[in-house]
Amino acid sequence: MTEDDRSHPGAQRKRPTKKATRKEDAGRKEGAGRKRPAASAKGGNGGARGGAGNGRKPAARAKRRAPRRGVLGFLFRVARDVTYWLVILGLWGSIVAGGILLYYGAQLPQSTAWRIPDRPPNIQIVSLDGGVIGNRGETGGQRVRLSSLPPYLMDAVVAIEDHRFYSHFGFDPVGFTRAMVTNVVRGRLSQGGSTLTQQLAKNLFLEHKRTIERKVQELILAIWLEAKFSKQEILEMYLNRVYLGAGATGVDAAARTYYNKPASMLTLSEAATIAGLLKAPSRLAPNRNPKAAKERAKLVLAAMEREGFITAEEHKLALTQKINAVERHKASSLNYISDWVMEQVPDLVGEIKQDLIVETTIDLRMQTLAEKAISNAIDASGKKYGVEQGALVSASPFGEIRALVGGKSYRESQFNRAVKAKRQPGSAFKPFVYLSSLELGNRPESMRVDEPVSYRGWEPKNYSKKYMGQVTLRKALAMSLNTVAAQLTFEVGPKQVIQTAHRLGIKSDLANHLSIALGTSEVSVLEMAGAYMPFANGGARVDPFIIRRILSKDGQVLYTHGNQPGTQVIEPNTLSLMNSMMQETLISGTGKKALLPGRPAGGKTGTSQNYRDAWFVGYTANLVTAVWFGNDDGHPTKRASGGNLPASTWHAYMAGAHNGMTIAALPGVSVKQLAETRRVAGGEKNPWVNPDLLPPGETLAPPLPRERKSLFSRIFGD
Questions:
Q1: pLDDT grade for 96, boundaries at 50, 70 and 90
Q2: Nearest Cα to 644, choosing from 573, 590, 713, 702?
Q3: End-to-end CA, the chain
Q4: Which of 48, 279, 460, 615 is the most exposed place for a label (fewest CB within 10 A)?
Q5: 280 in a domain, yes or no?
């Protein structure tokens, strides 16, 4: 390099590289070894120009290689370095991620063995007219198709949980990155970043543990789901399997749990509330925290409008809609029915491995009337009579249970008192005593003396503590005289009475002693209703039942109740006499509050020792109904007897239950016999006699005049 070159500013700023130095040294040696030719004038001039040109080109190259100066140069170098390290980190990250995927993925079964696990079976229990009584099983609701759901339900779930659902491949990098950045900024885990497909994979295959292994396997399975199923299929599986609080799995279960309706009938605001549950099912349940549920629903509706699923007008209208959530375990007696049905199903069809539909004999209109009758009676008179619980069973004379109430409130107690509780029936047991007596030759007009009696130290007393002297069996049954019942039991023997009760349908063990006359052995409400059915159906024994058929989801009949005629357990003549006596209890006896004007009915009151239990069991040609009131711990009531609270409750239910039913006489008792029976009983106008029902040519005899009693008799009794 010449002195002029060294003095050049660019040469002073830039030092030659080692490579350039080596080339330059090599050039010098080669030039020294060769003889330079003499230059001509022209060549010299050309060489001079060439020399001058050669002197400019290295300077230009050096200038191009000069670094950028200032802020832009610094930023350029930073960007270059960052890009370099990002690429390096990306490569290593891919290697590490791939290794993790391979490691945890290898712990999954072979993909050829992967399959969607069966959804836990659901048992749908329906009424006589097909109305849903309840759903039982792990899910609490039935499987639904997307086509049966309102579109805005799916839109609500997608909008709030995974708005890129229709575009991602099972994993949403954008959503995941956003969630991670949010969590870092907030310093806590506030967002998950999982897609609907990942959530479904977790619900289907994995345990709910927050581990790297689970997240990796969740991602692998989500990609597999996306490859194997369509978006619609994935969404349908998700909506049927996601947990939504209060024991409800799937949107149909949630709709029935919170709104007492199928998912197909949800409104937009209700759908938004259910979609909002996905964030925190227990905390946002509308029946527990309605305020929080409403605020969450507002966020869902806003997301739906933002994503274009609903318009601003629809959003505004949804905000004005009322959301009336119901409680999960409400006071509905339908839950008693569902529980009892579920106890029976395995015995009828074996192990439950598929969705079932159980058709019952329940009439929902009658069930509502029965539930109101029990709850209203306790609300209105429970404190007065010291009664806390009640139960009711109502069935057709041929055994089909139309209504069943196991207690005042299922929410407060799930114990089914109608089926499982056994209590003393008191005088409601006496019809079996009188039937045994009639079968041995006595008649309703047979006489006995109502007076104090004693049998080996047992001295039964009448409820009124009074005695009537000479009475007919008809009157003794109507007035529920304990002394006469004891006499008849002594005559026929307690063993015979027990056999009669078992023959008619009582299944509980009964004590073989004279006190059986007063109903001292415990029985259930269901048993009492069943044992009175022969009086209403013509004398045949039938066992009460609630399940008519059981079908698979595709309609295959798995069980049908054999509706076979029952065994005749009461002879027609004896049945006629019994029914003429039993109806007298409602006309002039202890069951007057149960009287159904214009409709023939028979029945019997019952009160156990120390007023612990109060019963009324009665029947018409259409229905047999048993009612019980008392306390779970067996402590005495405040003089609740069969003739007050149970009789009035029985009347309240039966009056409504018979709406639309044809009026008919009791089996074996014609309209003319009703009138004659009433004349013998005291001459009052028979409330059941309808002259239009008499056969052609027959007329009713005028009633006998009422027996006149002295003032002393009217005040103090006979």
A1: low
A2: 590
A3: 152
A4: 48
A5: yes
